């Protein structure tokens, strides 16, 4: 694929989601690596293609995991200065935070990075945060969910637009493969840094990338495409089911000050797939930290199917069933 | 797990699907290998557990792929005679059929085997055909679909009951792992044959079994369980979406002698996931051989979204859109 076709493809993704109108202010999360350096330059190309100007800012986090990360920040700062763009940087001691919080370095790194990006975008007046996840990342993310165990939710992969923080996070490259990004960088003679931990298969993500995907490709060379397409089609399917769940919730759940009430008979008419999701929605609305296990779900489905009186608790939530009525409330 | 717990688990699967009532006549597809030998003995155990008698018949196909297959048929015949059960066998020259029909040996073998099983079940008066697919097979089957490229349909895996032929095909072992079956065979001191082609990774299925699953297990040792559970939850979700598709079809499609008609405006109100499936259903009802590609689907979604006049063909089917009406008919 030539550079023009690549720019058109990224532009197509952005247009589909009505993203980056004229004079948008976009904060680009950059590591200095190939993906985010390609994103930086592609967004400049998109602005030229659309005959507009964007305010682009570049933000890099030093995670203190590799000794060379300090130098990479300086290298990127020079690149960004030469381009005349705004530059933001900060340092987190991710290894220490990881130990203190008993979370993996990947998880902690992601949390502090996105939180800081959101703060900078806020204080410096950016409309969007752009990140460089591409089609290969998408397939790896879906596989990671599949391996850990998931339902439909995990198979959708990452969204082009997500709203986990105040400022929307945008992924313009989800329809572009890593190979295409590398070809773009080579074609434009652009330089980038290489993260030495990318080949370390102690990291789960690298094991998926370097061991599992190549095995899958030996059966279907286009497996990355196939998995990314699955993500898109599952997103469409999930939209239908989520919508039905919201409708069922509104129709079936009576909300009082201290409790929620449902009719067993009415619930029984709903398909099992909707019942499971309705229960998750109901529990989350009382305690946002609750994720129902399959065992919890079976217990709740069982309550609906039998007519017996029953009482049990799931974490902070009490569920009692008597005659046709199920009551759900917080114990505290 | 001990033998009693295993029998209870298989019994649970059968009860959930109201299978094998008293005096059922069950034709067991057997290869002489561990899975189907375990199935044979487990169905005898289930009969005893339920204090009933089944008429069990054992059917084996010699696929003429391995030199030792003739001996395995004789070995199995001796086993079955000793148990006093009915025995059926036949030979197909699968390698030659595979070349003639330009299909893989796996595909041809499966086709001729199921067709013959169905014929025997018919002529000999069996109510069910039982096959030995277990939980590991289920996970492999779901992965095979994922790798080749699939939507929700391929992620459901194999069903406990399927109706592809006249006589229902039953899979009583879908909730049991291979390891549990081997433990059962060892515990009961039962013998079986080993298929030498099982380790040949030129076969796609063996590559999934011996290369891919172990890699996935290095990340999550319970990955087989996780994938099999995904299959169950996807089946529930798909039931909801299929049901909505049937309803939309009945509401939106007008069927005349020679054509089907739809309103663009009405179709546009349906979610994309339903539109795609409605088109597949509509095309299959005209020509059962048609499987719409993603490109076909996009073309059809596009017709719905624009108001323009358009005409195009997909294989034997012509689609014309003018004003609000889309007409679909067979060219012949």
Automatic annotation (TrEMBL), chains A, B:
InterPro entries: Rossmann-like_a/b/a_fold, TilS/TtcA_N, tRNA_Ile_lys_synt, tRNA_Ile_lys_synt_N. Residues 26-211 form the tRNA(Ile)-lysidine/2-thiocytidine synthase N-terminal domain. This is tRNA(Ile)-lysidine synthase. Its EC number is 6.3.4.19. The N-terminal region contains the highly conserved SGGXDS motif, predicted to be a P-loop motif involved in ATP binding. It is found in: Cytoplasm. NCBIfam families: lysidine_TilS_N. It catalyses: cytidine(34) in tRNA(Ile2) + L-lysine + ATP = lysidine(34) in tRNA(Ile2) + AMP + diphosphate + H(+). It comes from the Bacteria. The keyword ATP-binding applies. Keywords: ATP-binding, Cytoplasm, Ligase, Nucleotide-binding, tRNA processing. It comes from Veillonella rogosae JCM 15642. Ligates lysine onto the cytidine present at position 34 of the AUA codon-specific tRNA(Ile) that contains the anticodon CAU, in an ATP-dependent manner. Cytidine is converted to lysidine, thus changing the amino acid specificity of the tRNA from methionine to isoleucine. ATP binds at residues 31-36. Belongs to the tRNA(Ile)-lysidine synthase family. SUPFAM superfamilies: Adenine nucleotide alpha hydrolases-like, MesJ substrate recognition domain-like. The lineage of its organism: Bacteria, Bacillati, Bacillota, Negativicutes, Veillonellales.
């Amino acid at each position: 694929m030539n550079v023009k076709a690549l720019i058109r493809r990224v532009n197509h993704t952005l247009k589909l989601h009505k993203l980056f109108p004229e004079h948008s202010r976009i904060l680009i999360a950059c590591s200095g690596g190939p993906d985010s350096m390609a994103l930086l330059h592609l967004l400049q190309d998109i602005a030229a293609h659309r005959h507009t100007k964007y305010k682009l800012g570049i933000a890099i986090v030093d995670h203190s995991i590799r000794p060379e990360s300090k130098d990479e920040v300086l290298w990127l700062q020079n690149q960004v200065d030469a381009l005349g763009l705004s530059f933001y940087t900060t340092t987190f001691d991710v290894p220490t935070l990881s130990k203190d919080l008993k979370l993996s370095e990947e998880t902690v790194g992601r949390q502090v990075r996105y939180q800081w990006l959101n703060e900078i975008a806020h204080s410096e007046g950016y409309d969007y945060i752009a990140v460089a996840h591409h089609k290969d990342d998408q397939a790896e993310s879906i596989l990671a969910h599949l391996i850990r165990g998931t339902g439909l939710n995990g198979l959708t992969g990452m969204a082009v637009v997500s709203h986990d923080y105040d400022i929307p996070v945008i992924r313009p490259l989800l329809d572009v493969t890593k190979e295409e990004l590398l070809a773009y960088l080579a074609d434009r003679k652009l330089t980038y840094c290489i993260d030495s931990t990318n080949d370390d298969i102690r990291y789960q993500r690298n094991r998926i990338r370097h061991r599992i995907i190549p095995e899958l490709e030996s059966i279907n060379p286009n497996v990355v495409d196939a998995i990314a397409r699955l993500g898109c089609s599952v997103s469409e399917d999930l939209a239908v089911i989520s919508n039905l769940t919201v409708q069922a919730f509104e129709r079936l759940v009576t909300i009082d000050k201290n409790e929620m009430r449902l009719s067993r008979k009415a619930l029984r008419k709903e398909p099992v797939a909707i019942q499971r999701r309705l229960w998750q929605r109901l529990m989350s609305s009382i305690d946002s930290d609750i994720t129902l296990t399959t065992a919890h779900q079976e217990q709740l489905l069982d309550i609906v199917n039998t007519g017996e009186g029953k009482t049990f608790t799931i974490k902070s939530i009490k569920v009692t069933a008597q005659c046709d009525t199920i009551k759900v409330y917080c114990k505290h």
